Amino acid sequence: MIEHINWYPGHMKKTREMIQANLKMVDLVIEVIDARIPISSRNPIINDLIGGKQRVIILNKVDLADSRENEGWTKVFKEEGHFVVPMNCMNGAGVPALLSLLSKYQEARNQELSRKRTLRMMIVGVPNVGKSSLINRLLGKKSAKTGDRPGVTRGKQWLTLSNGMQLLDTPGILWPKFEDPLVGLNLAFCGSIRDETMDLASLALELIGVLQKEYPEELMERYKLVELGEEPLETMEAIAAKRGFILSGKRTDYERTARAVLDEFRAGIIGRITLEHSEDA
Ligand SMILES: Nc1nc2c(ncn2[C@@H]2O[C@H](COP(=O)(O)OP(=O)(O)O)[C@@H](O)[C@H]2O)c(=O)[nH]1
Ligand SMILES: [Mg+2]
């Protein structure tokens, strides 16, 4: 697992250089983001990094996110001048749309150049957004590894898709924006920060606070609550009581309740939830 990479300035510099070196060789950058947190799952300096290179934003994990927000965010990113493809890497929904977009782009570019040239792409994104899943989806079964391109970036492998397009085999792992505590929370809610490094009861309490404000019906429905607490802590205790997560002396088992709420949120069982709203963009 690479989601617990510690980003320090030296590391960021190396990543930036790696991406910029690879950028020269590609026609398109595919930026993968998490549809539940379309702002928090983006790299803070992505625009500076990528510059004017045409970008395809993959709004991934749409199966876990609010479908109205998926539409809203698609519109927002299109207005920013990017291609946008809503994606579900678990079942491949979105892959045909992506491939057809890429073919059209290649065709238009070939016409512009008056010759045929293979389309080359690289995938970038912060940890856990689904970069590897997307690469595997794009490769399918028919694709094969092609050789090194010595002198370009040492050791870099190009993968050839069944349609002949080429993809850099290693995704560019970007760093998320850690300075903003809300961004950190969103990433943690969605499983992008290792749980071992956090106090899960506090994290779940924060999540319950967000959900009871933004998705009260889903929360009540999932945990069979007739009402929500005035404070998130009351709600958490009510959830524990419903589930029987009670320790000796009638004490609430916060740890176990936290685990359940976080797991169920991440698996989309509480509902299809988007934590950042497109109308605020
Ligand atoms: N529900 C859902 N889960 C996904 C989707 N894409 C990836 N995942 C899951 O998200 C986690 C991280 O995916 P991975 O491809 O390793 O992300 P990477 O760190 O960006 O390479 C894995 O558990 C995947 O199974 C998706 O579209 N929907
Ligand atoms: Mg990966």
TrEMBL record:
The gene is ylqF. It comes from the Bacteria. Keywords: Cytoplasm, GTP-binding, Nucleotide-binding. CDD domains: YlqF. Required for a late step of 50S ribosomal subunit assembly. Has GTPase activity. One of its GO terms (biological process) is translation. Transmembrane segments: none annotated. InterPro entries: G_CP_dom, GTP-bd, GTP-bd_ortho_bundle_sf, GTP-bd_ribosome_bgen, GTPase_MTG1, P-loop_NTPase. GO terms for cellular component: cytoplasm. PROSITE patterns: G_CP. GTP binds at residues 60-63, 128-133, 172. Residues 15-176 form the CP-type G domain. This is Ribosome biogenesis GTPase A. It is found in: Cytoplasm. Belongs to the TRAFAC class YlqF/YawG GTPase family. MTG1 subfamily. SUPFAM superfamilies: P-loop containing nucleoside triphosphate hydrolases. GO terms for molecular function: GTP binding; GTPase activity.
